Amino acid sequence: MSDPFRRSTRIDAVELSEILKISELADALKREGRAIITLGTGEPDFPTPAPVIEAAHLAALKGETTYTLTAGTIQLREAIAAACERESGYRPAIGEIIVSTGAKQVLYNAFAATLDPGDEVLIVAPYWTSYPDIVTVCAGRSVILPTSAATGFRVTPEALRAAIGPKTRWLLLNSPSNPSGAVYSAEDLDALAEVLRDAPHVGIMVDEIYQHISYVPFRSFRAAAPDLADRTLIVNGVSKSYAMTGWRIGWGIGPKRLISAMIAVQSQITSGASSVSQAAAAAALSGDQQLLAEHCDDFRERRDMMVEALNATGLLSCPSADGAFYLFPDCTAALGKQTRDGRTIETDADFCEALLAAEGVALVPGRAFGTPGHLRLSYAYSRASLREAATRIARFCASLK
Asked: How far apart are CA 376 and CA 392, in angstroms?
């Protein structure tokens, strides 16, 4: 009998992300009474700034609770344009901006608006787990560009040039990167832009959501290559920088013809983002920006603490990170070793499962990010939790034989 609810071929291979699976498993263990420390989620532990919450409250009291323009309120788009000018030296027109329900929807809108079956998207590995799945849902094909610690987990111009083909529709970059923390310097972006100038059929999507969590100078791709602005989509939002993950506000900045197509897609999915959340985001972008530097300094201290602790295990090799709030240590030295109960650690996923079972620390295996043999650890948690996690990880590594 035919199943009316069978999965479409478009999403047949799409599942809940491994990050969410691990988070849900950790939550289940907590409910059983286990003392679990979860370092798998990319969410700042700072509270949303009080003036932002007050702005949302005021907007609600004033009756700003109705539908907004599909592309976003004028107030928020003007605040986004002003922030771009203040921070990156260019000011997009209002018609070049779309506000969405989180940065993930910006990615979806863009791919849904532009990909035909078989079109290729170049994705640099390690990558955020949702990138390939969104491409798949939008009928495209992901072409993975592997990197390594030797190149700082950044794609080289030579590798990019070799990967571009006649079916390439997009290059997707992420700087600062989730999960590696890699940041593309101005020189790096210049070199990549030179390659892309020779490939006029390729769009350039740059996810800059961690822009304000960078421990080295940050350069926006649009500022680095203004001549490619008519082929560039910048993705950003308030979730990471302003501790506003639950407010669900992201945006895209690109050429008007692309933004118009993305608005058409969004109009049939969600329409405009939450009116109250947009008021809050506008307040965040227009208010005191000192907290951004304070948060960044705090994250840098946590990074340094965890890099030292992980390298001290003797089994994990952990380079520092230039941005975001993740570390991506190499765990290959632990492969082939056995746990106390006789289980052999054969993969990065085995390492994470055994660590969770033995010590109650939840990490995400590198395979989820297209780079097996590594682990992703978020240090966007309290120092007390990080110190305890470091102690447990060290104890687990010492127990392997």
From this structure: 16
Size (the chain), residues: 401
Domain ranges of the chain: 9-47+291-399, 50-286
Q: Do residues 287 and 303 touch, judged by C-beta distance below 8 A?
A: no
Amino acid in position 242 = Y
The per-residue pLDDT for range 220-253, each reduced to its tens digit, is 999 999 999 999 999 999 999 999 999 999 999 9
On whether the 50-286 domain is CATH 3.40.640.10, my answer is yes
Q: Would you state the structure tokens that stand for residue 316, as one six-digit string?
A: 């994990």
DSSP labels, 339-385: -TTS-B--SHHHHHHHHHHHH-EE-EEGGGGT-TTBEEEE--S-HHH
CB atoms within 10 A of CB 103: 23
Asked whether the beta carbons of 206 and 181 are under 8 A apart, the reply is no
To the question of pTM greater than 0.90 for the whole model, the response is yes
CB distance 170 to 143 below 8 Å = no
- CATH superfamily, region 9-47+291-399: Aspartate Aminotransferase, domain 1 (3.90.1150.10)
